[in-house]
Amino acid sequence: MKWSWRVGRVAGIDIDVHATFALLILYVAIVEYQQSRSVTSVAVTVAFVLLVFASILAHEFGHALTARRYGVATRGITLLPIGGVARLDRLPSKPQQELAIAIAGPLVSVAIALGLYLVLRISGTLVVMSDIGSSGGGFLARVMWVNVAVVLFNLLPAFPMDGGRVLRAALAIKLGTVRATAIAARIGRAFALLFGIVGFFTNPFLVFIAFFVWLGATGEETHTRVQAALHDVPVERLMISDVRTLGVNDPLARAVQHLLAGFQQDFPVIEDDHVVGVLTRADLVKALAQHGDQARVGDSMRRQICVTHVRESVEHAFERLQRDDCQTMPVLRDGSLVGVLTLENVGEYVMLRGALDARRAATPT
Ligand SMILES: [Zn+2]
Q1: Which residues lie below 8 Å from residue 20, measured CB to CB, with a gap of 6+?
Q2: For 23-59, how does the pLDDT look when each residue is reduced to its tens digit (9 = 90+)?
Q3: Surrounding residues of ion ligand 1, Cβ less than 5 A
Q4: Within a 10 A sphere around the Cβ of 211, how many other Cβ atoms?
Q5: Distance 146 CA to ligand 1 centre (A)
């Protein structure tokens, strides 16, 4: 995620903190200092915020480690001022598994709240929520109540928040992922609207959350539709098969010719009938500026490339295209190049497929 710092790695999962998080700490510190003029109470307040976010981090690990049990890796956990996000690699294959992953986070928060409750009960310092002002109330009691609030708020069925994921998973068991996501996303956007309106009059953080929920719901709905459209489609069916290639010993001028003729932006490079690299438009521009148009293609191409096979499902190939940041994938059959797959190429297919599906849905049968 942009504007975030890596602060650590636990159980093989990177933890990032968004830059705006530092602004939040600064903000609460300044507000507290203006009210109390005491460095000690500023330190206590900052410690409180950090402890709250440690609880949220534990909550996100609840999701991530449960996902791992089902073979779904987590790319990382990012802490934002409005909460945490565990970025899972993909949806688990069964809705029941998504349900377990979604509920695991709130369960961790419940466990933290219960643990603190016991500590406070035993030490006799428990206070009720209404007695807790910004300064009053025990320190740990405040952390406990925040965890209770996190559970209650997260269990609202506002997809993609946890409660919404539980709802989607439950619907998906009967309706399939695509329809379940469409319904959950509609409910999620309705909640976002509600949060936005309520937040506008009460709490600006709620407005941020409204944005997050709205964009998240729409993004995930699109993502699920794309995945469904690409499921079981072999790369062969939508690859670009009319491909211009370059040889390692060709001068860059030849790539310029191809590019200006409008064939492609990225070119597979061939040596002895094998693909040995890809020359992207960005590489070409850089190499032209440094070495001129008579330099060898082989010296400017990238050798670290991802390739795919005619029989691979586009769903998989597309995932790798996005994840590994390879804009063009040479497509091989029996080791020889027969086409390329690009992000635009997949995007066009999804668009056309969507248009055909819409027409089919509109045609009375
Ligand atoms: Zn959660």
Answers
A1: 3, 80, 81
A2: 888 888 888 888 888 888 888 888 888 888 899 999 9
A3: 105, 162
A4: 14
A5: 14
